[in-house]
Design goal:
CATH superfamily: NAD(P)-binding Rossmann-like Domain
Number of strands: 6
Structural class: alpha/beta
Largest sheet: 6 strands, parallel
CATH class: Alpha Beta
Low-confidence stretches: none
Shape: globular
Distance between the termini: 34 Å
Number of domains: 1
Oligomer: single chain
CATH topology: Rossmann fold
Strand content: 5-15%
Mean pLDDT: 92
C-alpha cells in the first residue's frame, strides 16, 4: 500500500495525540496540528522515538490562511494529504439561560467552521489520489444531549450531519467520511473539566452511565480511528461509529 500522509488536528494531547501516535505506528506520516506548535513537539517526539515520521504544525483551524500555511508545510515535508482526523474542538459548561451570542458563535466557529475549513483544504489532495479518509470526532453529547452544553451539543450534532452529507458528496472519488462520537474519555481536558465540577458529575456517576462499567481512554478512540483510516473500512462511509462503552446505542 502506498505510504499515506495524515493530518490530525488538536493533536497536542488527549484523543488527538493518541490518534496521531497510532497512525504513525502503522506507517503513516503524520502532521501534528494544534494551536501551540511547542505543545505539539511532545507528540512528535514520542512518534519519532518509536521510529515514526511526524511534523509539528500550528494553526487556528477556523483561520483559512493559517490552516493553508500549515498544510503547505505538511505537504512539503511528506507529500499529499489523504487522511484527516478532525479532532480539534472546544467545550465548556454554561446554563442555557446564561449563554451569550459570543458563547454560541465561538463554539460553532471552532467545532463546525474549523472542521469545514480543514476538510475543504485537504479535499483536492484526496480527489487527485482518488482515495481519502475523513474522520470527524463528534461527541456522545450530540446523541444523548447534555443539559449544560446546549451550544456544544448543537455544534457536535452539526458535525454528525456534515459527515452524512459530505460522504454522499465525495464518495465517487474513493473518499470515505465517518464520525466517532466519544463517550466519557478520562485522559482529556474536557473530562477533567467534568470531574473538577464544571460538569457537575463525579467519576462514579460517569461510570454508572456506562454499561461496560468503565470510562474510556484516548486509545479506545484511536483504535476506531485506525480502522476508519485503513483499507478494511473502504465500504463504510457516512456512518457514526459510537465508541462509548454502550452509553449511547443506536
Amino acid at each position: 500500500m502506498t505510504q499515506r500522509t495524515a493530518l490530525v488536528t488538536g493533536a497536542a494531547a488527549g484523543i488527538g495525540r493518541a490518534c496521531a501516535e497510532r497512525l504513525a505506528r502503522e506507517g503513516k506520516r503524520v502532521g501534528v496540528l494544534d494551536l501551540d506548535k511547542a505543545r505539539c513537539e511532545d507528540t512528535v517526539n514520542a512518534i519519532l522515538a518509536e521510529g515514526g515520521e511526524a511534523i509539528a504544525l500550528a494553526a487556528d483551524i477556523s483561520d483559512r490562511a493559517q490552516v493553508g500555511a500549515a498544510l503547505d508545510e505538511l505537504r512539503a515535508a511528506f507529500g499529499p494529504i489523504t487522511i484527516v482526523v478532525n479532532n480539534a474542538g472546544i467545550a465548556n459548561f454554561i446554563a442555557f439561560e446564561d449563554l451569550t451570542d459570543d458563547d454560541w458563535d465561538i463554539m460553532f466557529k471552532i467545532n463546525c467552521r474549523g472542521m469545514f475549513v480543514v476538510t475543504q483544504l485537504v479535499l483536492p489532495d484526496m480527489k487527485a489520489a482518488q482515495w481519502g479518509r475523513i474522520i470527524n470526532i463528534s461527541s456522545s453529547s450530540a446523541q444523548a444531549g447534555s443539559p449544560r452544553q446546549v451550544h456544544y451539543s448543537a455544534s457536535k450534532g452539526a458535525v454528525v450531519s456534515m459527515t452524512r452529507s459530505l460522504s454522499q458528496a465525495v464518495g465517487q472519488y474513493g473518499i470515505t467520511v465517518n464520525n466517532i462520537p466519544p463517550g466519557s474519555v478520562l485522559d482529556t481536558i474536557m473530562s477533567q473539566q467534568v470531574l473538577e465540577g464544571a460538569g457537575r458529575y463525579t467519576l462514579d456517576q460517569l461510570t454508572a452511565m456506562i454499561p461496560m462499567g468503565r470510562t474510556g481512554v484516548s486509545s479506545d478512540i484511536a483504535n476506531a480511528c485506525s480502522w476508519l483510516a485503513s483499507e478494511d473500512s473502504s465500504y463504510v462511509t457516512g456512518q457514526t461509529i459510537s465508541v462509548n462503552g454502550g452509553r449511547v446505542v443506536t
